[in-house]
Amino acid sequence: MAVVSGGSERTVRAEEGGRETGFLRYSDGFRIDVLRADDEETAERLVRSVMASAAYEGAGEVSVHAVDPDGTVGRACRRLGFSASGGCPCCQREGTACLSMKFRDRYVLSLLGIDRPVFQKEDDGRFSAWRDGARPVEELRRFVESALDPLDPGFIPPEDRIAVFDMDGTILSENNPGDIEWAMYLRRVLFDPGYVPDDEQRDLAEEMIKVIRTGVKGPGFTQRKNRCNARAFKGMSVDEYRKYVSDFISEPSCTYEGASRRNLFYEPMMQLVRYLDESGFEVFVCSATEALSVRTTLAGTGIPPYRVIATEYSLTASGRGDIDAVNYVMRPYDRLIYTGEIVTVASGMNKVTKLAHGLGKRPVIAFGNGSGDYSMLSYVSSNPAHKGKCFMLIADDSERDYGSVERTASVRAHAEEEGWTIISMKDDFERIYDGCVRPRYKDIGELFDSGRKI
Fold this sequence. Notes:
single chain, alpha/beta, Aminopeptidase, Rossmann fold, 7-stranded mixed beta sheet
């Protein structure tokens, strides 16, 4: 078939053996004003070509002016799913009709064997790390497809397409042991010959090991952990701290075989990150780990530094001394150094306030893995402008990772009560990591019994 465009009208011709077997003319509004064909099959092919063009250009409807609704053209259109809309409004002649099809169901074209609309892309293995038919993937795809379709009630304008992921335990293993922040603290306090910890920091390290073994945090643990961790890097410049983090995560993992710490991202979750990015969503990470540490860890994942919202440690200019920061003018030779104090810990309700301040609007998709993410997911799911979609990752795979059904039971129960979609590592992940990565121990507590350096 040949398509000829001219002004606001376009024509399509069907030929066979050099002879024209059908002709169609339609306007920019995808109204077919003239359609003649030797047979129903040719008429159907002509109309299909217009339907495909309408879908690719984001139109919501194709209509056909049928002089004889029961003739060749009318029968071909009805076979395609068109329905009559009464007497023709153009000429009001008896026996004529306008037949139309609306594309509110975005799957109608694929069911008819027509090329998919632009907002549906072929998978190309993009979800290869997921089990076939995994419910979380299907639900996310339906949500995204609705969000991209201007005629769908779930349509979301491009400027509001924002997704947010927690990092540790959601897209990255938190068995290093513990998350990256915990592991780096244990290295600093217990194994760094260049650092002399105070008594509170040593006590916290022992307490942290007990928490990793049991999963149980004592009263005030989180506050002590945040306070001690910030102090552990007091006096370091931003560049020194970045290098410390980069060197640490580049080392071989002490809890997994076949990977460095920076390569312990959950491949199924990273496939979702890439899918959302390719679908036009801005993907942010909101983490309770310190911001520069998160940005350094995420380097190379495609998530840029400015899309990280995380815990902040206080910084100052190296030459400022006791001068109030408002009155101090930074000099070219000053370095930014860590003061050992915390500005904000991005966990729990603080995740919500930091998202509100940092983004100025609510995300429409959120992923988390624990109680520290409850407020963030609640904030997203109750979005008054657009219906939000939330997912909770459950680390329940004790064969291929350090997961536990028992330890994650309360998180699963809370997510189910809230109506958030459950992602089960055990049931939904075809593979967890990219490459030949496997746990070094049956139980992560064995690491501390082995005497191996963290």
